[in-house]
Specification:
With 337 residues, the chain is of the alpha+beta class. Helices cover 40% and strands 20% of the residues. α1 packs antiparallel against α2 and α2 runs antiparallel to α4. Bound molecules: adenosine-5'-[phenylalaninyl-phosphate]. Adenosine-5'-[phenylalaninyl-phosphate] binds next to β6, β9, β10 and α11.
Length: 337
């Protein structure tokens, strides 16, 4: 018995030594065959167990198993240490597809906003931007909303104290622009706007692009021409628009502009509630009362203005049923576009 145990221990020591000494894969393979192979030394020792008296077999069997485990581990460790391609390939499945880092992209709203500004840029408008925190003067008063007049209720305002508020529309930039510039003025103003509003087509924070043109002899026909050209470029060349009489304190006359339903083309469907039209923006001829605030002469110039809901435009163009999809940051939704 002690002879066999001694032989097992000696074999294990020599095997460990051979694994440590193997300088290349061939030497390591020789070590594996000599000690662990089907005709190797440990296998031979296992066979010898059969000749032992029954009560001595368990201890000798455990010693052989321990030696096999140690030598197998030493062999694997030495293989790794050899730093050779084929060995690494044993551990890695190089046929698996790689993991690509996710690529970021601009949000649908930013891209829609850029697209709108690009189209108006081609029509001769320049892009300007203005503050999101506004005074009552620019957001309401200079736009001809009299104090305590019910027309202020059209826009549920979020106040931030000290006579300041979050602008409810981009129209304050009409006044700010005219204060700083002499006619002709052709500007568009993209930006964030805020109202106490929240349902499937209204969000408390949303986006508008304001348009303002003040020049000699501008009429409602110019407004309609510009918006028709915009709708053709943004939606599709055949898109029809219609002007519907409306009211805004800062335009006279005022019109709400609808586009022919993007789903049914005007025949009437669920999306347009059977009317064939979808509301896109508010617009009108600049009320001459505004010129008094900025020192323009109403006998010299006339102008038109419009305020386009960017979220609305994106919903119409991409057929979105709920404005919240635009603000939830769900990549499964956003990556579709
Ligand atoms: C205005 O805001 C006017 N300033 C537009 C204007 C400009 C008229 C210049 C005349 C001259 P209105 O409240 O209708 O108008 O809003 C314009 C567009 O903004 C709407 O047609 C709609 O598309 C969008 N909008 C308004 N409220 C929200 C909201 N809570 N969420 C998303 N979009 C909104």
């Amino acid at each position: 018995m002690s002879e066999l145990l001694t032989a097992i221990e000696k074999t294990a020591r020599e095997g460990l030594e051979a694994a440590a000494q193997a300088g290349d894969a061939a030497a390591l393979e020789r070590m594996r065959v000599e000690y662990l192979g089907a005709k190797g030394r440990l296998t031979e020792l296992s066979r010898a167990l059969g000749a032992l008296p029954k009560d001595q077999r368990p201890a000798a069997g455990q010693a052989v198993n321990r030696a096999k485990t140690e030598l197998t581990a030493a062999h694997a460790k030495a293989l790794l240490a050899l730093d050779r391609g084929p060995d690494v390939a044993d551990l890695l499945d190089v046929t698996l597809p790689g993991r690509r880092p996710a690529r970021g992209r601009r949000h649908l709203i930013s891209r829609t906003m850029s697209e709108i500004c690009r189209i108006f840029g081609q029509l001769g408008f320049t892009v300007v931007e203005g503050p999101e925190v506004e005074t009552d003067y620019y957001n309401f008063e200079a736009l001809n909303f009299p104090a305590d007049h019910p027309s202020r209720d059209m826009q549920e305002t979020l106040f931030v104290g000290d006579g300041l508020l979050l602008r409810t529309h981009t129209s304050p930039m009409q006044i700010r622009t005219m204060e700083k510039t002499r006619p002709p003025v052709w500007v568009v103003v993209p930006g964030k706007t805020y109202r106490r509003d929240d349902d499937v087509t209204h969000s408390p924070m949303f986006h508008q692009v304001e348009g303002l043109a003040v020049d000699k002899g501008l009429t409602m026909a110019d407004l309609k021409g510009v918006l028709t050209a915009f709708a053709a470029a943004f939606f599709s060349p055949e898109t029809k628009i219609r002007l519907r009489p409306s009211f805004f304190p800062f335009t006279e006359p005022s019109a709400e502009v609808d586009i022919a339903c993007v789903l049914c083309g005007g025949r009437g469907c669920r999306l347009c509630k059977g009317s064939g039209w979808l509301e896109l923006l508010g617009s009108g001829m600049v009320d001459p009362a505004l010129y008094g605030f900025v020192g323009y002469d109403p006998d010299e110039v006339s102008g038109f203005a419009f305020g386009l809901g960017v979220d609305r435009a994106a919903m119409l163009k991409y057929g979105l049923s709920n404005i919240r999809h635009l603000y939830e940051g769900d990549l499964r939704f956003l990556t579709q576009f």
